[in-house]
Amino acid sequence: MLADLTARVYRIERRLQMDVQPPREAPRVEASVVSQPAPPPDKIASSAGQPFAPFPGELPARVSAVPPVLDSDLESRIGSHWLNRIGIAALLVGVSYFLKFAFDNNWIGPAGRVAIGLVAGIAIILWSERFRHHGYKAFSYSLKAVGIGTLYLSLWAAFQRYSLIPNAVAFVIMVAVTASAAAMALAQDAQILAAFALTGGFATPLLLSTGQNREVALFSYVALLDVAALVLVAFKPWRRLLVMSYAGTLLLYVGWYSQFYARPQLGITLAFASVFFVVFAIAPLVTLQPEQEIAIFASIPAILAFVNAGVYFLQAYLIIEEVDKTYMAWFALGLAAIYIFLSRLVHADLSAGAAQILYFLHLAVAIGFITIAIPIRLDAHWITMGWFVEAGVLFWVANRIKSDFLNVFALAALVLGVFRLLVFDNFHTTQLFFNLRMATYVVAIAVLGAVAWYAAKREDESARTVGAVALVALNVLALIALSREVTDFYSRQITAVHPPIGQWNSFYTNIRRVEIERDFTYSALWMAYGALLMIVGFLRRSAFIRWQALILIALTIAKVFAYDVEQLDKGYRIVSFMVLGALLLAISFVYQRDWLKLSSTRRQKEDVRAGSSS
Question: How far apart are CA 192 and CA 244, in angstroms?
């Protein structure tokens, strides 16, 4: 692009010079055009940003645009990596078919077949070193993969197919192959060889499986592999090995569990699951680097920490929940404590981007386990109460340590509690006000009040928005709680009405009387609450609270004129209108007296606006 632009400027300058200066002699121009080539594109590009000065004796007749340079990374990767790996697989398949054909035709005996495989595997590995010394590392690693795979297949055939060696001997030799591959990976600083070693290590139990339940031996070996992978990653930045190690561990664990697990093995199984959890829980801490930035491979430990926590909890839940769910609740709280401790360890160095991710992730997982423990251990409305208490504690801690991250989780727990309270909780009360439903609403209102109070102490716009929403929610919940108390009180009154024998008209009259009293009580309650809000708004000089009062009073006015005028009895209708009228007149009088100096404030704003416009 820059070279093309420079070439265009050059052509314009040449045209201007030709218009001003007399043309040169034709033979001389032709000779220069023919004999002198145009300057190369790199010279044109290098002169960008400086006054253009053609070389002496050069008069290029045409400057062509530089063609864009094609990116060859994808082509190179396909040719050198993917075709290489496909070639490895094809070669292994071809060798397998050839050996099978030879074996089926009895060309070679069992011992000879195994010996050929072992010798061929070792020879291929040694031969690959020659290519590595000549600079063909990728091809050398491919040959090593073929050689290592041949060794594993030969040992598998020696044990499983021909029973030439016992299980223990085959296992020891396979472990030696794995260790040798890992040693080569360290010596040659090759992550791909470490991946080969890890793959072979996790394949060993499958290749040597006898169909018997050997839990202790299997999981002890897997734990050693995981620790070895962790040691490798601690010294080398090979974080992808953690994913391979975790995937291999999980596959072997799930395979064993689905086939062999029984209730008497609970203790041993949970112990090994805990060992695997601990290894991969500390792996992100071991691999964390002070200068580490946020990148796709740098975030692998954080992703692994999250998956490890969820999978371990699910494993424990499947084992423990059938015994006692109370134990599972305490187990979840114990995990929350562990992740809080891990977050404090990471908090020591938050300079790195990955450390910040890991710190917040540990906190999020801890809070998630606390939130899960509540419905596991508690029932019905106690779950709602637990989430409200959790939200209150999180708000308190978040404001003590100045953490908006914890505030988000506190709001999430609060929203969960309010949603469950309004949608799912079904209380059966026998006492007015002093009951569990009112206690639950009081806790919710108290937490919402704390949110509004903490938000009022801050000056950022988001905190003000949260505080305003919390204040509105507080008043709505208070009205709902009081209205439900009114509903339950009059429901018990209606239930207590028994029809006299043969006097059904009297029975319906009594029920209608209770319903009229209930509807009047609703109106009186809403008017009283609106008046209380208006008083608080005046005392605190809060327009936001006064607007809430005005909206509630407007809804009450609509109910009185649209519903009470038709449904209430004459006496209740008169009282309802009189009380409403008196309340409206009192509020109007306060506004007309301008006790809050609203008119002067408005005039000041108008004066300021007029002065700024002039």
Answer: 12
The owner of tokens 């290098």 is 46
The SS3 call for residue 362 is helix
Comparing 541 with 152, the larger pLDDT belongs to: 152
Neighbour-count burial of 34, counting CB atoms closer than 10 A to its CB (0-12 exposed, 13-18 middle, 19+ buried)? exposed
Identify the residue whose tokens are 């779950």. Answer: 383
Q: What is the mean pLDDT of residues 484-506?
A: 78
Name the CA radius of gyration of the chain, rounded: 40
- Which DSSP category does 501 fall into? T
Q: How far is CA 161 from its chain centroid?
A: 47
Tell me, rounded to whole angstroms, the distance of Cα 507 from its chain centroid.
Answer: 61
At 217, give phi and psi (nearest 5°). Answer: -65, -45
Q: Which amino acid is at 429?
A: T
Cα 192 to Cα 457: distance, rounded to the nearest angstrom:
56
Closest to 88 in 3D by CA, of 156, 153, 147, 154 = 147
- 250 against 614, higher pLDDT: 250
Contact 514, 558 (CB under 8 A): no
C-alpha 484/C-alpha 487 separation (Å) is 5
Between residues 438 and 503, which one has the greater pLDDT?
Answer: 438
pLDDT for position 511:
85
**Which tokens is 366 given?**
């801890």
Q: Can you tell me whether residue 36 is helix, strand or coil?
A: coil
Question: What's the maximum distance between 2 C-alpha atoms anywhere in the chain?
Answer: 134
Give residues with Cβ within 8 angstroms of 257, minimum separation 6: 269
| Contact yes or no for 436/383 (Cβ under 8 A) | no
End-to-end Cα separation, the chain, in angstroms: 52
* Chain centroid, CA 571 distance in Å: 61
The per-residue pLDDT for range 33-60, each reduced to its tens digit, is 444 444 444 444 444 444 444 444 444 4
Report the distance separating Cα 79 and Cα 154, nearest Å: 30
Please state, in angstroms and rounded to a whole number, the distance separating the CA atoms of residues 402 and 398: 6
Following CA atoms 206, 212, 213, 215 in sequence, which dihedral angle do they give, to the nearest 10 degrees? Answer: -40
Residue-level pLDDT at 477: 96
Query: Which one is predicted more confidently, 279 or 2?
Result: 279
DSSP string for 203-219? HHHHHT--SS--HHHHH
Dihedral sign, Cα of residue 533, residue 538, residue 543, residue 544: negative
Q: How confident is the model at residue 254 (pLDDT cuts 50, 70, 90)?
A: very high
Give kind and range of the element (H or E) at residue 516: helix 504-539
Please report where in the chains the tokens 């709001």 appear, as a residue. 411
CA dihedral (562, 568, 570, 573) positive or negative: negative
Q: What is the identity of the amino acid at 195?
A: A
The CB-based long-range contact list for 65-74 (8 Å cut-off, 24+ gap) reads 65/3, 65/4, 65/7, 66/3, 66/4, 66/41
CA dihedral 547, 548, 550, 553 (to 10 degrees): 180
Written as six digits, the tokens of 124 are 């291929």
Q: Residue 170: CB partners within 8 Å, gap ≥ 6?
A: 155, 156, 158, 159, 208
Tell me how far apart the alpha carbons of residues 66 and 63 are, in angstroms, rounded to a whole number. 9
Number of H helices, E strands in the chain: 24, 0
Q: How far apart are CA 389 and CA 417, in angstroms?
A: 9
Tokens 């801890």 -> residue: 366
